[in-house]
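> example.struct
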């Protein structure tokens, strides 16, 4: 296992990414085509910037990535806008002033872990719920939401809530994610909220 993790760590450094987490997004993108040239992308919990950098590369000069985190994501290029803000507190109206709608909302947010699976799970769900709220507020119709969440008793209810808003919801566990990790990702496609 150590060799596999060292491989991703070294690969990230060699390819100029700040963290190995980029390969979770890249693997999913290659398989399911989350990101396209010209996309507008909202990256929640963006620091240290691996997902932001990857999304900016795919979106290209005609696209835009808005990176939101308490800490600034550095040196990401002309098609990246940084917002130093708390994702749990940011007003969607502030993001709408940058772009009315986004094609993709990404969230690799994870809580600081305590070692207690139940506590860590609940905190992860809180972050995922906030990411879903922002996706519901800001995604363009038929947009994509890709979100990390820890496995636990509230995962099925969260997945069901996503199914109310998206035509397709699948659970993804990329190879670059540690096998013993409780993290999984929900890939939600074709945002189509119920009409009120």
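> example.seq
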């Amino acid at each position: 296992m150590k060799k596999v993790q060292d491989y991703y760590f070294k690969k990230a450094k060699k390819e100029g990414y700040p963290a190995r987490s980029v390969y979770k997004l890249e693997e999913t993108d290659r398989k399911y085509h989350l990101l396209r040239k010209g996309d507008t992308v909202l990256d929640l919990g963006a620091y240290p910037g691996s997902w932001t950098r990857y999304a900016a590369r795919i979106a290209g000069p005609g696209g835009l990535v808005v990176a939101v985190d308490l800490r600034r994501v550095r040196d990401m290029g002309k098609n990246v806008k940084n917002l130093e803000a708390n994702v749990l507190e940011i007003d969607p109206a502030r993001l709408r002033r940058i772009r009315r709608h986004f094609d993709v909302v990404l969230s690799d947010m994870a809580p600081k872990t305590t070692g207690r699976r139940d506590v860590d799970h609940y905190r992860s769900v809180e972050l995922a719920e906030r990411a879903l709220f922002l996706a519901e507020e800001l995604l363009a119709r038929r947009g994509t939401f890709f979100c990390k969440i820890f496995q636990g008793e509230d995962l099925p209810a969260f997945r069901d809530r996503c199914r109310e808003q998206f035509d397709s919801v699948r659970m993804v566990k990329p190879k670059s994610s540690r096998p013993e990790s409780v993290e999984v990702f929900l890939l939600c496609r074709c945002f189509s909220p119920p009409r009120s």
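> remarks
Residues 162 and 190 are 11 Å apart (CA to CA).
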